[in-house]
Write a structure and sequence with these properties.
This protein has helices spanning 2-20, 29-39, 43-56, 71-85, 89-115, 118-126, 130-169, 172-194, 200-214, 220-264. With 265 residues, the chain is mainly α. The chain folds into two domains: 2-197, no CATH class; 198-265, no CATH class. Helix 1 runs antiparallel to helix 2 (29-39). The protein is globular, with a radius of gyration of 26 Å.
Length: 265
């Protein structure tokens, strides 16, 4: 029960900070898994699982009407079950995605409940009752934090023993297969991330990074830093040059037009 309480409070607190702090991205697996690992007394495993799940859920970002899996609950419960069962990242990668999909359905129900207060919010806005509008928004935030706490707490309180028994009953051959599949999931996460943004220009950068790691044997940190440098060069150095050339071309055209006007006169 203590472990369920710790994980539930960490999950709810992280969501509260995420919304009140202006979306600092603390609800990502890299952060939440590390915090849960520290709370359960296994910081190293939490960091490893967080890094693995971050690769899987890297493209899971809510944009517009898109409803991605709930990364916060998936990473929280996946990390907690993995540490409690002692099976590490293999179990976390296997359980995180289905848990995240289920949690997203529960969150949609909370959104439906919160939509019931829209008419009251409009009435408060028409009457310029700012303080009441603030507390109405805070009530919606607390309601969602409570949802996260209850879902995680109940799942761990009643599910940890069942998950632990289930994991121990899995044959070694199947467990090895799950480990291999878990190692493939980061590649799937990268593929989902690259799918909407890959084009002929971006493919060259992807190919460059692949060649640097596969054949140049460069560490990932070095390739990442080089990518940051290239991004700054492309955004801040190449575009002004293009604008300058356009402006210079525009100036020359204007001068030619003025000379032609004078000549016609």
């Amino acid at each position: 029960m203590t472990q369920a309480l710790i994980v539930g409070l960490i999950t709810a607190l992280v969501w509260f900070v995420e919304k009140m702090g202006g979306t600092p991205m603390v609800n990502r697996p890299l952060v939440i898994s590390t915090l849960i690992g520290a709370g359960l007394g296994d910081l190293q495993t939490g960091i490893i699982i967080g890094a693995s799940l971050e690769l899987v859920f890297m493209g899971a970002i809510q944009v517009g009407a898109a409803v991605p899996p709930d990364v916060l609950v998936g990473a929280s419960l996946g990390t907690a079950f993995a540490i409690i069962s002692g099976k590490g990242a293999a179990v976390a990668l296997t359980l995180a995605l289905p848990i995240a999909l289920l949690a997203q359905s529960v969150k949609v129900l909370i959104f439906i409940v919160r939509s019931w207060f829209m008419d009251y919010a409009v009435k408060l806005a028409e009457e310029a009752k700012v303080k009441q509008m603030y507390w109405l928004n805070m009530f919606g935030l607390f309601l969602q934090c409570l949802m996260y706490f209850v879902v995680v707490f109940v799942a761990l309180l009643f599910g940890s023993t069942a998950v632990d028994s289930f994991v121990k009953s899995i044959p070694e051959v199947i467990m090895n297969g799950l480990t291999v599949a878990g190692n493939l999931l980061p590649a799937v996460g990268f593929a989902l991330l690259l799918q909407p943004m890959m084009n002929k220009k971006n493919f060259l950068y992807f190919l460059l990074g692949f060649l640097m790691i596969a054949y140049g044997k460069m560490p990932i940190l070095a390739v990442t830093l080089l990518g940051v440098v290239l991004a700054f060069v492309v955004v801040f150095d190449m575009k002004p040059a293009a604008n300058d050339s356009n402006s210079s071309d525009g100036t020359s055209h204007n001068q030619e037009d003025e000379s032609e006007d004078l000549f016609d006169a």
